[in-house]
Amino acid sequence: MIEGIKIKNFKALRHIELKNLPKMCVFIGANGTGKTTLFNVFGFLKDALVDKVSVALTKQGGSRGFQEVRSRGESGSIEIELKFRERNESPLVTYILEINEEEGKPIVEREVLQYRRGSKGQPWKFLDFSRGKGVAVTNEPENVDDQTKLDLEDNVLKAPDILALKGLAQFEKFPAPKSLGNLLENWHISDFHINQARADREIGYAEHLSREGENLAWVTEYIYKQHPDVFRKIIERLKIRVPGISAVETKVTDDGRILLRFKDGNFIDPFLARHVSDGTIKMLAYLILLYDPKPHPLLCIEEPENQLYPRLLAELAEEFREYARLGGQVFVSTHSFEFLNACEIDEVFWLAKEKGFTVIKRASEDEQIKRYMADGDKLGYLWREGFFTGADPR
Prior knowledge:
By secondary structure, the chain is an alpha+beta fold. The chain has helices at residues 35-50, 53-61, 66-69, 165-168, 175-186, 194-198, 216-226, 228-241, 278-290, 313-325, 337-341, 367-374, 379-384, and strands spanning 2-10, 13-18, 24-28, 78-84, 92-102, 105-116, 124-130, 133-137, 152-156, 188-190, 201-202, 245-252, 257-264, 271-272, 298-302, 329-333, 348-354, 357-362.
């Protein structure tokens, strides 16, 4: 679980810090305030880990790379800091990444992974690298009770834009780097497109739903065949959320296409995906995502309210919260009053722009919002009435 994020000089996020993050985080704000940019930080870290920093910068900033990603008019490094725990009882781990440019080429200025052992004293550094050179611990710190017993080894990377974390994350004996590597490699962003999911597809294979959902039929087929108990749970949930739906099935045609079909209890023949409502398709997709047999450690979901009947949004918020309670973590961006009404005050953050850059505020730290909530108001209504300064949804 990520407990804290600090970002400096990453596009509109010139300097933000989020502390004591809950398992479910909901971000609101007007268009252009930086909600998608916040999610993109995880995509950037994934690309940097899987490939290298120069590739990650190109994906985010095009041909200008570092210059386009670094906040406009700023100097110095791009800095990202994550605080997380592998398990609830594990020590707090901090990962610090600073990226700069030298002679037109990106470099990792600094990369540190450190443990917080208790509430006092300095953290123990697991790895400490700069410009492709540094030291890494070769024995697991969780099993060491004295910092002097850490085995440190000097290392040189192949290039100064490669993350040292990439190597250690491959080893089972280092659970913290492995856990962070798993988070960055397997986080998922959902920007579901109804038309992509409706289209008939040639036979294929997929275990996880894609960002836009075009492989919905493939994943449905996979879960139905390989995880029947999970599939039954998904359908039971869908029946509750969408009255009338009695079953969902896939069918392979003679010409090699796979069709997604929905059964309505009032009709003998099932309906193809292109003939059912947008809300039905999208609710199925979210249930497929949330009940994935191998769940993502972090889900980032953009505007889940699109194409969903407002009545379903409170139930969807509860599904997200249940996913988080069972071990995942969920970040949601929304423009929906109805969805926000189903959120708890500790879960909600709002983004606004000040002097061209993003600031992030927390609902639970606003005394006026806290008083209204104590009197029985709901967050969505307060947002609509303008109590989230700078986050006007109109």
